[in-house]
Amino acid sequence: MSAERNIAVVLFQLGGPDSLEAVEPFLYNLFCDPDIINFPGAFLARKALARFISKRRSLKVADHYKEIGGKSPIVDLTSAQASALEQKLNTIVKAKVFVAMRYWHPLTQEVIAELKKEHYSNIVLLPLYPQFSKATTMSSMKEWNRQCKINNFVGTLESSICCYYNHPLYIDAIVENINRIYQKFSHLNPHDVDLVFSAHGVPVSLINEGDPYQLHIQETVRLVVEKGQWQSPHRLCFQSKVGPAEWLKPSLNTTIHELAANGRKHLLVIPVAFVTEHIETLHEINIETRAEAEQLGIKQFEMMPALNSHPKFIECLADIVMKKVDNTSIDLGSCRQAIMRYDQKKPTILCPFWNSSRQ
Phi and psi for 24 in degrees, rounded to 5? Predict the structure, then answer.
């Protein structure tokens, strides 16, 4: 172990309500984010609109959380990931891993307060979003920069990671998780099983502006299918649409209906962009979509579990952190071009293994 370095890793994640009472304030924080709700003049109406939407949606969303245990599991699962990563890193360097949630506790400012208590030779900002998007990674980075300015915090050798959608260990972890569930279809001809990759959707307007999220998702799916070598057909779809704007298509709902209409009866749904279980997997897929699939005549509906603390996923995160700290470059395909195309004027969110720059 290197005694000269003492690194801090900050895991960025969405967050989720830790009680039913927290549902409405969590939604308010979510819809106050300008990277979520944005239109000409939005800054004048954003808070009022966020209050209206969060109040209107909170009762229904709270009912969904009741069905999965009364709270989001994302905080506990992310904390477990942080502990596993910290243990892994401490076999190499002295390291401490923190969790900064975007919309609920522990919030970014709480993590900064903890970081100020000790000196770190390196601070690595690591989003738990393998695929980059303005709505996720960039939003978390902007909040980090904003809170650093408010709290007068300047980290030593601070650096950020934007994505790792094609990291071999990340791909291996997904393939292993798929194989665990794929065994449940062993009594069938593989051609009778459909692999349905489902990713969280984003507005098409983001993609048209150059957001590389869709490209990153497509490349992750391509690599997973190539590595898995299954004989089953596969599809990519998107879920969790909010509001009237056009989002990425096809939707998970449309895909399930089309498969059922074509006489397909055996589905394995793969939540490809989610690294922990939360309401979009446990409720939207495993309760809502499952029930709809059964009504449509689907005989076998299975869901791949999220990676959570899968050993290879933790190895992936540790590898990314150490290569960042050691300033080792990795070829991540089209990532650089995608990011620069998206944000040519202000490239504040840089590619993995580049140094970040604050505005």
Answer: -65, -50
Contact predicate 193/185, CB 8 Å: yes
- pLDDT tens for residues 244-275? 889 999 999 999 999 999 999 999 999 999 99
Q: Domain for residue 60, yes or no? A: yes
| Residue 50 belongs to some domain of the structure | yes
**What is the model's pTM?**
0.89
- Phi and psi of 94, rounded to 5°? -80, 125
Q: Give the count of alpha carbons within 13 A of 302, CB side only.
A: 19
β-pairing verdict for 122-127 and 193-200: unpaired
Tokens of 158: 């601070």
| CA-based nearest residue to 111, from 89, 122, 91, 96 | 96
- C-alpha angle with apex 262: 259 to 266, nearest 5 degrees? 50
With both helix axes pointing from N to C terminus, report the angle between 74-89 and 311-325 in degrees, rounded to the nearest 10. Answer: 60
CA dihedral 246, 283, 76, 31 (to 10 degrees): 30
Whether the CB-CB separation of 280 and 198 falls below 8 Å is answered with no
d(CA 128, CA 314): 11
Residue 163 in domain: no
Residue 124 token pair: 């690595």
Single-letter code of the amino acid located at 354: W
> Any idea what the CATH number is for the domain that residue 269 is in?
3.40.50.1400
